[in-house]
């Protein structure tokens, strides 16, 4: 569905969210079952507060970018989080997504690294899953309520590992101090009004949680892009250069097998500029809350299979069911 690239948000989000776009690409396999199992073993809701996170003094004016004061060299052995302001909105469940604003500091130097979602800037969407987001960030927001401000201290093991990040001037032993404002919890599935089944396209049956089951029609795959709207949402129109949050399932027309899906992992957020053309064309111009089905021929997917194009999905006609949950 997407190329293996980081989404283009703020500099920190681009690195922190790289795992969000790591599930379906033409140059790397879908995460293995063992990887998924390891992610499932992490309880993003069980993050404790501690001496490190409690030591950070954070401003409480939710209308302004937060300030944070702490002694340089702050670190912890595990991710800690302290709720600075407790909101009274919906809870962000494990695997769920929410729009957030954040500020990131280097725990060693105290330097402000990056911020997003303030002063009218792009408000990112984070998914509370270590399969979709940097582990320390997922542990910072899991089961936090809308309207909350939390501060977390994230050790290297839950951030950039033993290599650090030279672009962000983060050394291998630097912790991160992150202040996150959890804004709107994103629905987990499309909520739009049901539309008549598109003629000639695969049929879709939804489980109670929204997971689709696709039945392919008999006959050859279409040679042109085919798009149908299954649910019509009442949200904003998705721009061609937007960043979106979606649930999706991808099926091969050739054998009906599912080659990748976000269901079971949590919604994915990415820029439309980073996906194959057919996928982007299916979403751009649609409204948030909609569910669409698209049949993508190889020319608008991963290309025809050849000696120089041996990608797993090369030459395949792909069917995606996409729930459009948010856009920015």
TrEMBL record:
PANTHER family: 39 KDA FK506-BINDING NUCLEAR PROTEIN, FKBP-TYPE PEPTIDYL-PROLYL CIS-TRANS ISOMERASE FKPA. The keyword Signal applies. InterPro entries: PPIase_dom_sf, PPIase_FKBP_dom. Gene3D superfamilies: 3.10.50.40. Keywords: Isomerase, Rotamase, Signal. Belongs to the FKBP-type PPIase family. It catalyses: [protein]-peptidylproline (omega=180) = [protein]-peptidylproline (omega=0). PROSITE patterns: FKBP_PPIASE, PROKAR_LIPOPROTEIN. This is peptidylprolyl isomerase. Residues 1-25 form the signal peptide. One of its GO terms (molecular function) is peptidyl-prolyl cis-trans isomerase activity. Residues 95-186, 241-328 form the PPIase FKBP-type domain. Its EC number is 5.2.1.8. It comes from the Bacteria.
């Amino acid at each position: 569905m997407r190329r293996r690239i980081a989404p283009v948000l703020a500099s920190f989000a681009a690195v922190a969210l790289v795992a969000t776009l790591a599930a379906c690409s033409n140059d790397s396999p879908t995460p293995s079952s063992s990887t998924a199992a390891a992610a499932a073993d992490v309880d993003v809701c069980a993050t404790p507060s501690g001496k490190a996170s409690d030591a950070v003094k954070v401003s409480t004016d939710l209308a302004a970018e937060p300030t944070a004061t702490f002694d340089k060299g702050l670190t912890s052995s595990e991710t800690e989080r302290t709720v600075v302001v407790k909101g009274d909105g919906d809870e962000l469940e494990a695997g769920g997504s929410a729009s957030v604003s954040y500020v990131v500091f280097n725990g060693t130097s105290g330097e402000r690294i990056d911020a997003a979602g303030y002063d009218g800037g792009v408000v990112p969407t984070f998914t509370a899953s270590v399969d979709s987001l940097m582990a320390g960030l997922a542990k910072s927001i899991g089961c936090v309520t809308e309207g909350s401000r939390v501060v977390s201290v994230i050790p290297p093991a839950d951030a950039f590992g033993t290599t650090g990040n030279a672009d962000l001037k983060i050394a291998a032993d630097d912790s991160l101090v992150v202040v996150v404002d959890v804004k709107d919890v994103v629905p987990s599935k499309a909520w739009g009004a049901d539309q008549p089944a598109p003629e000639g396209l695969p049929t879709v049956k939804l489980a109670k949680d929204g997971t689709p089951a696709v039945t392919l029609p008999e006959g050859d795959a279409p040679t042109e892009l085919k798009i149908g709207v299954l649910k019509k949402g009442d949200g904003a129109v998705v721009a061609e250069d937007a960043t979106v949050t979606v649930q999706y399932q991808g099926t091969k027309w050739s054998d009906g097998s599912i080659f990748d899906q976000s269901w079971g992992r949590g919604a994915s957020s990415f820029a439309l500029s980073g996906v194959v053309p057919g996928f982007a064309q299916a979403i751009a111009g649609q409204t948030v809350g909609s569910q669409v089905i698209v049949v993508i021929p190889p020319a608008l997917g991963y290309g025809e299979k050849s000696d120089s194009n041996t990608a797993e999905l090369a030459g395949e006609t792909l069917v995606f069911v996409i729930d459009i949950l948010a856009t920015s």
